[in-house]
Amino acid sequence: MAAEHLRVHLEHIAQVMPSDGVVLLALDGENAWEAFPDSGEAFLDEFYTRLRQTKGLKSTTLGGYLGTRAGRPVGRLHSGSWIGGNFDIWIGDPEENQGWCWIKRTRDFLTQAKEGGQVTKEVLAAAWEDLYAAQGSDWFWWYGPDFQTDSDTIFDALFRGRLQNVYRRLGVTPPAGLSVPICATGTQLGTPPVREIEPKLSGTGSYLEWSGAGKYEAWRDQGAMAQGDRRVRMVRYGVGESDFHFRLDGKEPLGEEVILDFHQPSPVRIRIGGEKDGKVSLEKSKDGVVYEAEDCSAEVAGGGGLGLRIPFSSLGWRGDGVEVSFLVRVIRGGVEVERYPDRGLIEFRGPTRALDMKNWYI
């Protein structure tokens, strides 16, 4: 009988342990009981009955045991994993490592906020709960090549959502990188630019002026439930000799404020409208969380849409073929009401001398 086998095994261990020794029985959630016809109910009843009848053995919780004894240093703590005795399932692959890096980055942010003393205990407690939930091992079970499920992208979004909540609870916009799926999707969001462009600054622009620009068809980004009040239809973007060009096509008014959040090559946030009365402000960040305003020589135009031209020098783009990724957020009533892409970032290769040579046409 399984219950008696375990009881005898513990009794033998007790004979070679100190009188205050403890044996920890740690089980992995529901997995231990799947092989029992009644999910282990009869086994547990029988085991605890026999345990009460055995001299020298007493059940307790780990907290109850440690609460009555002084702690002592442990030189080495074994992994204790029931799969290979290591953590390979949960760390080591690029997706898993990226997830843990986001946890560390978010935890560092929350720790600094706690030490700053400007956040209430209630808000901090809620933020820590989100972080603790993200630190659960099951998220990382599904990252990497070891295991796959049709719900990979759902788990991925929920994991990143927990980390985003930490920032939002403290009144901070989450880093743009947390909008990027960690699970490899192989999907290219948008059509990247194929040649340099030099369009006139306007909210509309002609077809020829924007021919060769990158584009993202925002109207397709609605999932299964179409939203009739979404105002953006197309995001166009490209590079010229010395400027980044950007245009939104949609219904006016787009919003009180339109924000471009650049994730690569470095965190840069461009705000258009809002309290700036249609003017442009630029903010830069070292960590993607705390942004500081900087001088900006960008130009903006409206009328049927929204157009922007900003020098590479203002964005800090240096070098040939820099990797660029960004998203667009529309603010109305002080709240983000639209985001493009809804998941992920628009990505393309920035200014490169080889761009026109590779894609030249007559």
TrEMBL record:
It comes from the Bacteria. GO terms for biological process: carbohydrate metabolic process. InterPro entries: GH57_Enzymes, Glyco_hydro/deAcase_b/a-brl, Glyco_hydro_38_N_sf. This is Uncharacterized protein. It comes from Verrucomicrobia subdivision 6 bacterium BACL9 MAG-120924-bin69. The lineage of its organism: Bacteria, Pseudomonadati, Verrucomicrobiota, Verrucomicrobiia, Verrucomicrobiales.
